[in-house]
Amino acid sequence: MEKPLEYLKGCMKPDQYEKLAALNNSKLNEFIADSVQLCTPDDVHLCDGSKNEYDTTMAAMVEEGLATDLKARENCFHFRSDPSDVARVEGRTYIACENESDAGPTNNWIHPDELKGTMRDLYNGCMKGRTLFVIPFSMGPIGSPISKIGFEITDSGYVVCNMHIMTRVGDEVLETLGQGDFIPCLHSVGKPLAEGESDNGQWPCAPVDKKYISHFTEEQKIWSFGSGYGGNALLGKKCLALRIASVMAKKEGWMAEHMLILRLTNPEGKKFHIAAAFPSACGKTNLAMLESTVEGWKVECVGDDIAWMKMEDNGQLRAINPESGFFGVAPGTNSKTNPMAVKSCEKNSIFTNCVVTDDGDVWWEDGDGECKHGIDWKGREWTPDSGEKGAHPNARFTAPAAQCPTICPDWEDPAGVPIDIFIFGGRRSELVPLVTEAMDWDHGVYMGATAASEKTAAALDSGVAIRRDPFAMLPFCAYHMADYWQHWFDMGDKLGNKAPKIFYVNWFQKNEKGKFIWPGFGENSRVLKWMCERVDGKAGAYDTAIGKMPKKEDLDLDGIDLTDEEMDKILSVDTEGWKKELPIVREFFETMGDKLPDRMVAQVDRLEERLGK
Ligand code: GTP
Ligand code: SPV
Ligand code: MN
């Protein structure tokens, strides 16, 4: 377009247009003008991040029947999504770069030209009858050298309100941006409205085969179409802060990881910082907000889903949480399992796909209290006898991080927190012990690369029962997985003796009756304590074929309700079982082709040796 500003003058409110004119960022003006021209909305709104904007946008959705005002909770709202739009759609998530080999074997690749062609046709006129919102947002504290600015264009009020909570939105972002660069993110629910038509209370989205969650990794831009669900639509989160950032991080020598960040303080006041990667719906939010059951040990939350980490000049790795809210799994969250999450979403929060109770509150399976009658996530009457779950298993709450009672006072420090420990893990009902310490960095990288987990509800189409989910990044690493592994080896080389210690955990082993053996949740603090004492050289461990492990007496198990047999079961190494994993791991490695680092092969060879023939 020749004169984007002039074009925008014709379709924006004067005061909002003036902001753009004063800023005079030509990339931004072109991005907005091109999007307006392509998507043909009825109206354009430049977001300022104000409470008034949130309230007005939410009120319009309540009016429309898309949201329910929850009378029992201060400033809280509930949304019911379309049944096809309840989770990330990995099969419709694309990495577009010049060469397919750069996307690697773990991503869906389409050539950028082809994908743009397909998506332009879909975007054409897609915002008819709707408002196009322009959301200026910062991932990371505004102005921090690690932070990145994005602009999300969307036709969804749900996205606007969620982005207000999950990211830093508003005028300050414009001021910080100036003439600088940003990541353009274009989103549409993909449901244009005909003249006089309205959503009429129905969550707007497109059918699955029209959904595209696309990442142009070389141009660094994001195009998402057809879904309103969190990870597909709140583009600052998985799309920017993980997929696009993973490519930047590789190029620039830092790390963008699917990790919670927490601070653990011991009785002497010494602080440890832990970053932990578990696949979606495998316990990050819970661990991040854990209430320690070990006397004198205190946990504070820095972040629950994403970590951006950089090495300082002195060789110390420091992490920030690029988000400002939690988009947490609701089912299973209650005052016993995760009291801090319960408190975090007491007010000013958004709920998606829960049961709305008759007294105007939300309820979900394994939540607090009982629900005798309500309206389920599909909008039908629900009672405990309905025979179906009332909340979708991937029902979520969106809550401001600042509302977490244990939020770390330094959670917004632009310099981040120094990382001492990395944890990997997954959901395995068999084989994988409670905790293992890597023998060295390379062995830890092997543990991360071979992490595997049972299927959860966080992705609609994740397929097989147990899948390899390296570093919990399978759905989020936007370049060749083997290059990503090499990046981990390289980071270890750079960090040298300042590299964090690496551990692997599994909270999810089950007994013959299908019950979790380890009580989990707050009791996981016992395992974290052992890790910190390992860092300090205070706790014992012994060598096994799969790594260093604690004996029962090395763990603080005071007051825990487990029999000796049960503890033995989760602290033992099933050599035959591990041997059976080897061919599966080798087969997985083979899918990486010649990019597979020799150092990775060396690790599986050594493991095989240690396990014995
Ligand atoms: P994403 O937001 O999808 O990335 O998930 P997450 O990794 O943050 O998982 P989250 O903490 O929300 O936990 C997901 C589910 O696992 C919830 O239903 C939790 O109740 C359950 N869970 C978390 N920690 C534990 C644990 O230590 N033991 C057991 N048995 N279940 C757990
Ligand atoms: C996950 O699936 O890992 C989530 C939820 O944290 S989403 O934002 O949808 O990715
Ligand atoms: Mn996640």
From TrEMBL:
Swiss-Prot/TrEMBL keywords: Cytoplasm, Decarboxylase, Gluconeogenesis, GTP-binding, Kinase, Lyase, Manganese, Metal-binding, Nucleotide-binding, Pyruvate, Transferase
Q: Where does GTP bind?
A: A281, C282, G283, K284, T285, N286, R396, R427, F521, G522, E523, N524
This enzyme catalyses: oxaloacetate + GTP = phosphoenolpyruvate + GDP + CO2
> What PROSITE patterns would the database entry show?
PEPCK_GTP
Pfam families registered for this protein in UniProt: PEPCK_GTP, PEPCK_N
Can you tell me which residues form the catalytic site?
A: C282
Q: Does the keyword Ribosomal protein apply?
A: no
- Pathway the protein acts in: Carbohydrate biosynthesis; gluconeogenesis
According to its UniProt record, the EC number is 4.1.1.32
Give me the residues that bind Mn(2+), please.
Answer: K238, H258, D305
Q: Its principal location?
A: cytoplasm
Q: Which GO terms describe its molecular function?
A: GTP binding; kinase activity; manganese ion binding; phosphoenolpyruvate carboxykinase (GTP) activity
The prosthetic group or cofactor this protein requires is:
Mn(2+)
Which top-level enzyme class is recorded in the Swiss-Prot or TrEMBL entry? Answer: lyase
- Please provide one cellular component term from the Gene Ontology annotations of this protein: cytosol
Q: Which InterPro entries match?
A: PEP_carboxykin_GTP_CS, PEP_carboxykinase_C, PEP_carboxykinase_GTP, PEP_carboxykinase_GTP_C, PEP_carboxykinase_GTP_N, PEP_carboxykinase_N
Q: Which HAMAP family match?
A: PEPCK_GTP
Q: Which family does it belong to?
A: Belongs to the phosphoenolpyruvate carboxykinase [GTP] family.
Q: How does it assemble?
A: Monomer.
Protein name from the UniProt record: Phosphoenolpyruvate carboxykinase [GTP]
